[in-house]
């Protein structure tokens, strides 16, 4: 109903679509602390520069 394309029995043999979130979620324990550290450094740099 949500897809205008006609589905045939051959379509069910295709691999399921890949989820973008599932592709990147394994990197979150590394990416979040690194980005947080960079953000804290930039905010401290701005605070020192403005003072």
| Average predicted local confidence, pLDDT | 86
Order of SSEs, N→C? HH
Low-confidence stretches: none
Rg from alpha-carbon coordinates: 22 Å
Number of helices: 2
Beta-strand level of the residues, as a percent range?
Answer: under 5%
Number of strands: 0
The biggest beta sheet reads: none
The portion of residues assigned to helices is: 40-55%
Question: So what's the oligomer here?
Answer: single chain
| Distance, first to last CA | 60 Å
Q: Give the helix/strand class.
A: mainly alpha
Please state the overall shape, judged from the principal axes of the Cα atoms: elongated
Protein model, in words:
The protein has 51 residues and is mainly α. It is built from 2 helices and no strands. The protein is elongated. The relative contact order is 0.07. The mean pLDDT is 86.
Topology summary:
Layout: H1 20-24, H2 28-50
Provide tags for this entry.
elongated; 2 helices; 55% helix; single chain; mainly alpha; 51 residues
Quick recap of the structure?
The protein is mostly helical. The protein has 2 helices and no strands.
């Amino acid at each position: 109903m949500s897809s205008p394309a006609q589905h045939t029995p051959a379509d069910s043999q295709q691999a399921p679509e890949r989820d973008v979130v599932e592709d990147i979620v394994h990197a979150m324990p590394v990416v979040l602390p690194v980005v947080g550290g960079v953000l804290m450094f930039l905010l401290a740099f701005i605070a020192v520069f403005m003072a």
